[in-house]
Write the structure tokens for this entry.
Amino acid sequence: MGELIAELRAALGPAGVIEEPTRLLPYESDGLAMLAVKPRLVCLPRDTRETAAAMGILHAHGAPVVPRGAGTGLAGGATPVEGGCVLSTARMRDVLELDPVDRFARVQAGVVNADLSNLCQDERLAYAPDPSSQMACTIGGNVANNSGGPHCFKYGATTRHVLGLVVVLHDGTVLDLSEPALDPAGYDLVGLFVGSEGTLGIATEVTVRLVPAPAAVEVCLALFRSLDDACDSVSDIIAAGCEPAALEILDKLTIDAVERSVFAAGYPREAEAVLLVELEGTEADVGAQVRDVLGLLERRHPLEVRRARDPVARKKLWAGRKGAFGAMGRIAPDLYVADAVVPRTRLRELVARTLAICGERNLRLATVFHAGDGNLHPNICYDRRDPDEVRRVVEAGHLILAECVAAGGALTGEHGIGLEKLAEMELYFSPADLAAACRMREAWDPGRRLNPGKLIPTHACLEVKGAALARGGAR
Amino acid sequence: VSSPAIAAERVLELCGRTLSPERVGLFPARDGLPATPEAAPRTVEELVELVHLARAERWKVLPIGNGTKLGWLRAPARVDLLLTSRELRGITAYEPADGTLTALAGTPWAELEAATRARHHLSPELPDADRATLGGALGAGASGFDRLRHGPLRHQILGSTALHADGSRVRSGGRVVKNVTGYDMHRLWCGSEGSLCFLLEATLRLYPSPAETAVLQASCADVAEGLAQSHALLRAGVQPLAVVLRATDGEPGAEIAAVLAGRPDAVDHEAARVRELLGTGESLRGEPARRARAELRELERAEGRWAPLVLAGRPSRLGRTLAELEAATAALGLRKRLTLHPLLAQVSVEFPGTELHDERLVRLAGLLAGAPLTARWRGLGAHQPPARTSQVPAELMRRIKRSLDPEGLFAGGPAQA
């Protein structure tokens, strides 16, 4: 232990290694606070070179490594492993290149999502993925989780915006794929890496695509008497071929929480659901899109429709949505933020099922979701001091996922699998699917020391290893 | 050094025990690949049986669709059997309100377009759509004429089922538009040249069908002016589906075309802006616009064969790329025709009157090898210059290949030594 720390200190400097128990506390969990494990130590390299050096040392000592961005993940992807090392990108916060002509930026992995977006504004460009945690989450973390956000409805998730990467592999080898090429030279390693949840390597630099900031943006906020009406409106908008930049729904309990918080937006008491529709394009195009959308909203008899064009007024309409998770603290001490995807044709039905599942277990559910993508976020209120309530929350979370998978959906739209949904991976994938994933993982990290126990159920990997040994084929 | 190819007669005889005679035959020599036995299974069970047979006989297998993009491949060292998906065809699921389409690999691209056209735009808009198949397009990593707006094909694939070398069926992704469950293995199949698995089925995202299309065409003094005009469009906030620039050595000037698609009022507005910037020229709507768009889409396969060279780089370096190409072709006395997508910085180069076995093309490949751009050659067969991949990614690709296909059943691909 002492030797390992001495070597790491020599490579990273005194500020680059944390081992004091009190300073390790913030690293015990990510946003999934119910899972907490104290790491053995934390490494804080400043760049690719230091990361490679640290990874080489950790490899030589056989230490498991858990990569960490800002720790805002909600699936336990950055939960440490017992006796392992957390490798944090918190000191890698430089923007290395911003090219407004070729429209890309090359940044260190620890750059905060919102900081990159703000930096692009002067060039009238934008970095499109905008997770709810964008004020804190990092680009490297976004890469690991293939993060989304409200505007992914139009622009797609992180994977569509990553042009290149520098990755440090399990043994400290540097994989440089940073040149923003139109097509990969060979296998699409970048496409595979994005969303791999820190199990294949550690991204230290990311080259991202920047999109032109729209000339005009308008937000329509519709208040409905029922959640069903809001869901049906979303179906109407998609079926009509409209292409909003974002389509978001908040339910009654979320509205109540927002109204009792600093994010209060003046939603009327009788509103059971809020639908936010953001439209963007040229001035003329946005005007025409708004006319279409208003016509479609009217079909479901909203209580009221509010509109905003200027940035300040738009921000106000978004305030309730952006502040929804923060506002939940008003209604419960703890919040289990679930994440699942359903086919968009079954949105209304599955939203009703999530409500029923929670109702049957005497749990309060506040739902906020990326309705345009069919990405549900049932937020179950609970108190972690009540073991029975925790048990019911976990059970409800599992049942919701099982219903979504049975309906043709998926386990996660943007939070990832992490530790949280390991068991459910076997609901979604067959043993053959998981075995192939294990083989892929071992091609990158033969010892499975990178974020061990995450993303793929461990026993599936052990079975693959066993079969390989039985064949006499050591990999 | 690869072992010698298995005698075609034996391959055909053994495959003939699984498939009826009309589905086993010799695929004619093409694009640098010699005449090779081909088998066309009609069911997954037949396919699995053939894969087991090939493993037992230690054959090298190359999965194909109709073979329209064989010339894109890095020439495989050895192929004993072409396994075609063309009999494994059909749309598995199309739910218009979900905006997704799932189909078997052998389904022709034109069939996918026909099924979805009323409500959706299927990206990419590929040339030769009657013969191109879903699996073939994915294996080749083909992107289309509409890439500027919708991105490459690898961004359209949402999930897949593939048959691996050990006979297992492996699924990744799903049939929903947003999904981060597990590794995006389907992204790896895209552009893998069939070297990792046999793709059985894939799900693609769809886009709302644009209500209106306009094609604006104009002449410009030369390529440089066309490039300047293209970038002026972008600066003016126009968001075209495509901008295409054409020029041929020895012919005066260049032709520029901008394709606009979307809501009628938005297309009107953008068309007015484009006319201002491009000056006088043709402005097509309705059926003439659709015909012009269809012609532009086929440009990469003008005269029935793929442009032999595709160059790509950064948009800001496109001028330098073209200068390097100009110097190299002039030195070799090669006449060229350029089809540029200036806003993507992609250039397809044809050499009118030059055969693919002309040694000047091999010399040109050598001259361009050191330039800071990606040069992809098609149809040169064994003369195809190797892709420039540095050591670490190349080794990782080989490890991936070994882990998924340890016995090397599938031929070729970027990881071959």
About this structure: The longest strand of chain B covers residues 212-220. Residues 328 and 367 of chain B are 7 Å apart (CA to CA).
